[in-house]
């Protein structure tokens, strides 16, 4: 297989989203000897990648893109031409939860992946290495290999799995200095040759002992399991937050105490309104579906409970608001601080703020949303109810005349606002519901606010 040779130099990534764009920019910046092309069927996304107004907000990303763009990094919509030229193709298309047919609401929708595979077969004129970068159900590579290699052109495709572990908001640092890079390949001579070619790319900047290899199925499954474990920690501490509110324990104190146990570790133990993001829920549901399809009901129910706890936490946040505000929020102005699923990203996919806002609208509150990066996406998420919400980039304007503030994203700037000024501009009694436990609650209480947080005793003046 000529293209599996170690000197393969043309890299292509199909899918210029939150993963494809940043990961390929990093590869191009750290490996000037490779030509890296990123293609997408979404022309406006590609033209944004070719501008200084990148399609995604990610701290430090523009610098990495600018280092390589035009030198050995190219963004294009010409998918077919790029496929022909490539030795190695990373596929980073979206794999959302299926919304139709069998497995709807749980299984991964693989149509984008399969369409991509079929296009690769149709267009290719030489052997290629295909790398799964998208998160996929375990054993997808086998199906893909079957589709790719059922060609009558005599072309061989070697399918590898290289799941991406970056976190939005810290993507550049995560890629520059990853905990590990995982590459799964088949143990055949062609598989091992292809694996070497991918290891060679990452070895340009990642320490060799952090590049780990495995069989393809372990690599595919590891990505689902990593996200399931991370989300499970959040749901676990959130389940304890409910107990804290009943018992006057403080969830932050509990987190700190258990997190100092080196067997547990301190990360992902912050209680909140719930986890969001495009991956956690989708990947757990995918795991649940796979377990169910093997008849492993206990395993499926175990992981499903992580999602159920998250849904409960989001609902609970709004019902606490309603009961606290004298059992009605109808016609009350409520300022939602933050719409992104977490700080330092404009991404709102599965953001808990979506559920919070929709529930508040159902209760006929007058909702005002503020966020430094996510208002464009918020408009898309709330397309059906835009007449019922206001969006303002200035948090002071959003809070003006409000009965309550609900913190839904832990943006640093929300910790630094002049809350005295905000308090003076609000209706009284003024409430703050801190869904991320990021504010100085005692200070706010002393200013006159009634403060409700997650898993902590309420601070109220009545
Ligand atoms: N977002 C994250 O933080 C993250 C982290 C790790 C892994 N992942 C996984 O990576 C994959 C991609 O996620 P994302 O967040 O980048 O998604 P995304 O929706 O931001 O990007 C996917 C892109 O693929 C493009 N695309 C779809 N079909 C195509 C085709 N046939 N040809 C060309 N382009 C096509 C879409 O237009 C879109 O721009 C998913 O499987 C996801 O689970 C995401």
Describe this structure in words.
It is elongated, with a radius of gyration of 24 Å. With 462 residues, it is of the alpha/beta class. The protein is built from 18 helices and 14 strands. The protein has helices spanning 20-30, 43-49, 61-68, 79-85, 111-123, 140-149, 171-176, 189-202, 216-247, 251-259, 280-293, 297-324, 352-362, 375-381, 395-399, 412-415, 419-425, 441-447; strands at residues 10-14, 35-39, 73-76, 88-91, 128-132, 157-161, 181-184, 211-214, 333-337, 366-370, 389-391, 404-407, 431-434, 450-453. Strand 4, helix 5 and strand 5 (128-132) form a beta-alpha-beta unit. It has 2 domains: 2-214, NAD(P)-binding Rossmann-like Domain (Rossmann fold, 3-Layer(aba) Sandwich), CATH 3.40.50; 250-462, Rossmann fold. 43% of the residues lie in helices and 13% in strands. The strands form 3 sheets. Strands 3-2-1-4-5-6 form a 6-stranded parallel β-sheet, sandwiched between helices. It has a 6-stranded parallel β-sheet with strand order 11-10-9-12-13-14, with helices on both faces. The longest helix is centred in the middle third of the chain and has 32 residues, at 216-247. The structure holds nicotinamide-adenine-dinucleotide. The site of nicotinamide-adenine-dinucleotide (NAD) has 27 residues, from helix 5.
